[in-house]
Every structure is written in C-alpha cells, then in structure tokens.
C-alpha cells in the first residue's frame, strides 16, 4: 500500500528530526508532526530557524527545505490522526517514578494515551508505528488498547526503533547502519511492513533495511543501547584502575580498540554517560529480566548503571576534596551541561549529578553551556533535589571574560569550543592555584600542565 499521509505524535528529539528527513526524502508524502505542547509546535513553525526546539547540526536546513511543502507542525492532534494512513508514536517513555516497577520500568502512560486517542478518532484503517523506545511486548499492549476501543477499523502495529544519536542525528538518519522494522507475519502485517520499507527505500539501500517479528525489533533496541553503555562502563571501570596503577586509560583504550574484534567506538572514558536512552533502557532490561525471574541476568546488566554512578561520584568527590584541601572558597566553573556535545539536551547529563553533589557540599558553582539555558539547569537540579537552592548557582554567558573569578574549572561536556579556548591566556587571568578537572579528557594534558594548571583527567596520573 502506498502511503500518502503520515502523522507523527510527538515533536521531540526523535519525532522532529526523523520526520524532517522522511519528509525531505519523500516529497510526495504529506508528513504532519503533532504535539500537545502548543508552544513547542509554534517554535517548530518559527521563522527563526536557529531556535527550533531541538538543536541538531544540519536540522534547520532540512526543516527549511521541507516545511510548508510536505512537512507540517501542528497541535491539532485529532485532525491529523483522522487524516493519516500511517501514525508514528514518538512520545516520551520516562522511567516510572511511582507504582509497580518504580525506578526501573518505562512509564507507558504517554504511549497508552496515544493509542487510546488514535482508537477514538480513527474511522479508517491505519498502520501504527512504535518509534519510542518501549519494553518488549508493548506492541501487544498497544494492540489491545486499539482493538478494545475501536473494533471498526483495522490497525496494524509495527515496531521501528530509532537508532539515531543526538548531536549526529541528521547524519545517522541520512545514512543509517540499519533500519529495523518489526511486524506481524500475517498477510496484513507483511503488507504494513512493506509500506514502511517503501518509505525508507527512498534513500536507504534495501540491504540495510532489516525486517523481523515485533518482539525481536523491540528487544534489539534495548539490547543495542545496553551493549553500547556496557562498553562505556567497562572502560570507565578500568579508568579507576589506571589511576591506581599508572597505566593511561587513553593508551589502553587505543590499544584494545585496534583489535578489530573489539573495535574502537564507544571506548572513550568519561565522567559517565547521560542521555535519555541508556539509563532508561538498561533499567527496562533489568526490570524485564527480574520480572521473568532471571535474577543473575538482571544483576549483570544493572552493574553498568552502578559503575556509571560510581564514575560520577568519584569525579565529584575529587573536586570536593580539592576544594576542601586547598581551601578554595571561590566559585568553581562547570563548562558544559548538555549530556554530550552538539545537542541542547541535558537529560541524565553527568553534569547534573556532579553539580548536585557539589551543592550538597555547600560549594557554589557557575555554569556555562553553549546551547542549554538557565531555566533548564534550574529545572534539572530541582528535579533531582527538591532542596535545590537557586542562589548557589549562577549561569554565565561568557566564561572566558570572567575567568579571574575562579580557581577551578571542571569540563563536563566535550564541546569543541572548550578545546579551542586559549588556555595560555586563561591561565594568565585565572586565580591561582588553578585546577582543571577534565571530565572528558579533551585537553592535551601535557600541554595544559606545562602552562601551569593542576590537571586532573580521568584514568591517568
Ligand atoms: C544513544 C545511542 O547511541 C543511539 O543509537 C540510540 O538511538 C539513543 O541512545 P545518545 O544517547 O543520543 O544515543 O548519544 P550517544 O552518542 O550514544 O552518547 C550517550 C552518552 O555516552 C553521552 O553522554 C556520551 O558522552 C557518552 N559516551 C559515548 C561516553 O562517555 N563514551 C563513549 O565512548 C561514547
Ligand atoms: P523523545 O526524546 O523520545 O523524542 P521528547 O520528550 O523530546 O522525547 O518528545 C516527546 C514529545 O511527545 C513531547 O514534546 C510531548 O509533548 C509529546 N507528547 C507526549 N504525549 C503526547 C500525546 N498524547 N499527544 C501529543 N503529544 C504528546
């Protein structure tokens, strides 16, 4: 079946960029991205392409090309559900904060609300595509809700997990390693799979489009993220050993990464991984394993998260010790708040946890990030800690011109601009003694030490 009208529910980090590319590559298909957040929709429709709700390199160019042609953003959710032949569900699935599975399971209330709304509004057959990361067998739940609330039309459910990484989303969407589509093996199910394959084939080679059953597709997404996060926790755990033994983690990482069986990606030590996916998906995997009685399997995967927390704690404890031992009473400066470079997303960023730890130790902090704003920083810190005291944090616009205020700089995000700072000049202006805690090992530590800074990286002496 040839699809002419797509609706995507959820105009966030997944829905926005993904639909922009689908629309760009399929000018004959009308793509309506809807969201219940009207402010977000007006920002997507704004003339100011530099301030779209999602910052991704290359995104504004694609939006400029397709918006108004066959890409539309709207808060009229019902109308576009009604009109669509295919509906993507790209809403948030945060970890549950109450009820059964609290702290582990994904909260499916937004996905379930979408399913209910689709059932209530639909008068024609529709293909529903699960794009949000969901626990295995969610499709079953969506099916039940749809059929219970509407038995007049046929709903086919597909799972099409998103593998894009923020900061490189446009490239990942344009040349994906693979597109995964899971669906039922029935005649109708196969037809639905074919219609989605057709949409992706406009730009993705057929051999990179993988079709599976629904549950394999759902589980593959969780597993892919768990494997990636596992590599980071593995290298981070070794970084502590390096600090004890005198081995250098960057050298170890390079040496093992050259083994083609291991490969070099995702072996960069850091203050800890963040982002909306890794922690949530692993918690989900742990929950599913534990609910199935697989205690050892659950414990195995949970260890990735324990190491990640340990890495953040280790880093912040070192800063606290340094402040106390050296009697540094001035503010300290955190460079970077986003969970990685080239995004304005700060969900689960290591910076939030490190900052919170410093604040709990009565250390005042100044924060700078090129893309995250002060409201977001306040939101993140108050969400983590209800006793958050705003007056202990200052958000600054231009870190370098105020540098004489600080003794200690902690690099939290690997933004390119931090590497490009004139560190010689900064050293000449900064209060002494001057410490750099490089949570990403992005600076040339020999050079920085030579300038005079006390340099504390991760996994090296
Ligand atoms: C991840 C997956 O990569 C992507 O396929 C999936 O669709 C969503 O989750 P994302 O969270 O956007 O993407 O970014 P990613 O590049 O995976 O980085 C996640 C975190 O790990 C970041 O905080 C990053 O700084 C950190 N990281 C990454 C490391 O600390 N070391 C590394 O070697 C790689
Ligand atoms: P992701 O990273 O998964 O894209 P985001 O939080 O960035 O998550 O985006 C999810 C979007 O989904 C939000 O903008 C939210 O307003 C929207 N959303 C959630 N539930 C619904 C719903 N029932 N109808 C319309 N939009 C919804």
Question: Can you lay out the helices and strands and say which pair or pack?
Answer:
Blueprint: E1 5-9, H1 15-25, E2 30-34, H2 38-44, H3 59-66, E3 71-74, H4 77-83, E4 86-89, H5 109-121, E5 126-130, H6 138-149, E6 155-159, H7 169-174, E7 179-183, H8 187-201, E8 209-212, H9 214-245, H10 249-257, H11 278-291, H12 295-325, E9 332-335, H13 350-360, E10 365-368, H14 374-384, E11 393-395, E12 408-411, H15 416-420, H16 423-429, E13 435-438, H17 445-451, E14 454-456
Parallel strand pairs: 1-2, 1-4, 2-3, 4-5, 5-6, 7-8, 9-10, 9-12, 10-11, 12-13, 13-14
Antiparallel strand pairs: 6-7
Helix pairs in contact: 1-3, 5-6, 9-11, 9-12, 11-12, 12-13, 13-14
The structure holds uridine-5'-diphosphate-xylopyranose (UDX) and adenosine-5'-diphosphate.
Descriptive notes:
The protein has helices at 15-25, 38-44, 59-66, 77-83, 109-121, 138-149, 169-174, 187-201, 214-245, 249-257, 278-291, 295-325, 350-360, 374-384, 416-420, 423-429, 445-451; strands spanning 5-9, 30-34, 71-74, 86-89, 126-130, 155-159, 179-183, 209-212, 332-335, 365-368, 393-395, 408-411, 435-438, 454-456. By secondary structure, it is an alpha/beta fold. An 8-stranded mixed beta sheet has the order 3-2-1-4-5-6-7-8, with helices on both faces. A 6-stranded parallel beta sheet has the order 11-10-9-12-13-14, sandwiched between helices. Helix 17 links the parallel strand 13 and strand 14 (454-456). Helix 9 packs across helix 11, helix 11 packs antiparallel against helix 12 (295-325) and helix 12 (295-325) packs across helix 13 (350-360). The radius of gyration is 24 Å and the shape is globular. The N and C termini lie far apart (61 Å). 46% of the residues are buried. The mean pLDDT is 95. Uridine-5'-diphosphate-xylopyranose (UDX) is lined by residues 162-166, 225, 228, 232, 266-268, 270, 273-275, 277-278, 339-340.
């Amino acid at each position: 079946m040839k699809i002419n009208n797509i609706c995507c529910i959820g105009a966030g980090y997944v829905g926005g960029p993904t639909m922009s590319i689908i629309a760009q590559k399929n000018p004959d298909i009308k793509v309506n991205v809807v969201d219940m957040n009207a402010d977000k929709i007006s920002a997507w429709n704004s003339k100011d392409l530099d301030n779209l709700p999602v910052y991704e390199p290359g995104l504004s160019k694609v939006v400029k090309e397709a918006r108004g042609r066959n890409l539309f953003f709207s808060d009229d959710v019902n109308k576009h559900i009604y009109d669509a032949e295919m509906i993507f569900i790209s809403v948030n699935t945060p970890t549950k904060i109450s009820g059964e599975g609290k702290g582990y399971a994904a909260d499916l209330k937004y996905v379930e609300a979408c399913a209910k709304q689709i059932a209530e509004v639909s008068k024609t057959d529709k293909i529903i595509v699960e794009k949000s990361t969901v626990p295995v067998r969610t499709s079953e739940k969506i099916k039940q809700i749809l059929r219970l609330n509407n038995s007049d039309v046929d709903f086919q459910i597909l799972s099409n997990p998103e593998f894009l990484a923020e900061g490189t989303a446009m490239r990942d969407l344009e040349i994906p390693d693979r597109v995964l589509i899971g669906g039922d093996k029935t005649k109708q199910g196969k037809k639905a799979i074919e219609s989605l394959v057709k949409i992706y084939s406009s730009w993705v080679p057929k051999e990179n489009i993988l079709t599976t059953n629904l549950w394999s597709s759902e589980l593959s997404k969780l597993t892919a993220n768990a494997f990636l996060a596992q590599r980071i926790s593995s290298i981070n755990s070794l970084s502590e050993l390096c600090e004890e033994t005198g081995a250098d983690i960057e050298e170890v990482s390079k040496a093992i990464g050259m083994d083609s069986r291991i490969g070099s990606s995702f072996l960069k030590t850091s203050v800890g991984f963040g982002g909306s996916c890794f922690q949530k998906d692993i918690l989900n995997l742990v929950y599913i394993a534990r609910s199935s009685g697989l205690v050892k399997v659950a414990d195995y995967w949970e260890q990735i998260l324990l190491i990640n927390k340990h890495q953040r704690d280790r880093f912040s404890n070192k800063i606290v010790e340094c402040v106390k031992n050296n009697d540094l009473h001035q503010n300290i400066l955190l460079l970077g708040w986003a969970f990685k470079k080239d995004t304005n997303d700060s969900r689960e960023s290591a910076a939030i946890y490190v900052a919170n730890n410093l604040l709990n130790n009565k250390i005042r902090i100044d924060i700078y990030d090129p893309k995250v704003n002060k409201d977001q920083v306040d939101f993140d810190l108050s969400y983590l800690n209800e006793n958050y005291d705003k007056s202990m944090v200052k958000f600054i616009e231009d870190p370098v011109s105020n540098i004489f205020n600080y003794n200690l700089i902690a690099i939290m995000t690997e933004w390119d601009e931090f590497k490009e700072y004139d560190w010689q000049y900064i050293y000449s202006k900064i209060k002494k003694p001057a410490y750099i805690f490089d949570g990403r090992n992005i600076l040339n530590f020999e050079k920085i030490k030579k300038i005079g800074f006390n340099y504390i990286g991760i996994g090296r002496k």
